[in-house]
Every structure is written in C-alpha cells, then in structure tokens.
Design goal:
Blueprint (H helix, E strand, L loop, with lengths): L7 E5 L2 H11 L4 E4 L3 E4 L7 E5 H8 L13 E4 L3 H14 L2 E8 L5 E6 L5 E6 L11
Parallel strand pairs: 1-4, 5-8
Antiparallel strand pairs: 2-3, 3-4, 6-7, 7-8
C-alpha cells in the first residue's frame, strides 16, 4: 500500500449545515451532490467529501458514536501568514470553533487550528523554511 489517500470522506451529523459551512463559509465548490454524499472540487488534490455519519459508520462496519480527539488532524499549508489569518477568520465567521488562534509555532512556523461544526480539526500553517512544502494554495 502506498502513502497516498484517494479521497477523504467525513461523516457528518447534519449534511445541510456541513454544506453551508464549507461552501458559504469557506468558499468550496460542490462537484457532485448525491444526496447521501457530497464531493467538492479537488483542485488536483485528494477529493474531500461528506457522508451522513450514521450511514458512513454502517458502510465501514463501526459505530457512529464517538467524542473527543479522534487522533486525526487535517492540515492545510499556505504561502503566507496573512493567508493563515484570513482562513481562520473565514472559518470562525462560518461557525468554526477556534482551538488555537493563529500565531507563532514552536518550530518556527506560523499557524492556527479550528474545528468545523462536526468537530473535524483543521490545522493551518505557513513556514518560510523548506522548499518542498505540501502547499494547498
């Protein structure tokens, strides 16, 4: 198995709320809306989509119950500190919970963290160090 993710599928409790958060709040564009699942334009990256939480849990053979830190963090690397600040502000306005406000990071970068309405954690970051950054934009 390669170190590659073909798509990222998030189980959400409220499909309409999740769609509003990502489309109206963060400006994502829907590529396919199948009713039980939604996929967004991927811009050459791994596609991200939603599926109803109960249905997704059933599909993969587990319980939909869960709380606290799942051990999964989605990272989004950008090319400037200003862009980190802009995205954190967009997310907060859209209803995200800011877990760590944007600021200097211990390793020398700059970043912040938010949770979407379903609790999925997004870590935004920027670093002037390194030439092979996995930039999202």
């Amino acid at each position: 198995m390669k170190a590659h993710v073909s798509s990222i599928l998030l189980g959400v409790r409220d499909m309409d709320q999740a769609k509003r958060f990502y489309t109206e709040g963060l400006g994502w564009k829907i590529k396919n809306d199948y009713g039980v699942s939604v996929f967004f334009e991927a811009d050459g990256a791994s596609p991200v989509g939603f599926y109803g939480r109960d249905g997704l849990a059933d599909l993969v053979g587990t319980s939909p119950e869960g709380s606290g830190f799942s051990g999964l963090v989605l990272t989004y690397v950008v090319r400037s500190e200003a862009r980190v600040d802009e995205i954190i502000a967009e997310a907060e306005k859209a209803g995200a919970t800011i877990l760590k406000p944007a600021g200097a990071l211990p390793w020398g970068g700059y970043g912040g963290t938010f949770a979407d309405p379903d609790g999925y954690i997004w870590s935004l970051g920027y670093s002037a160090q390194g030439e092979d950054q996995p930039y999202a934009e």
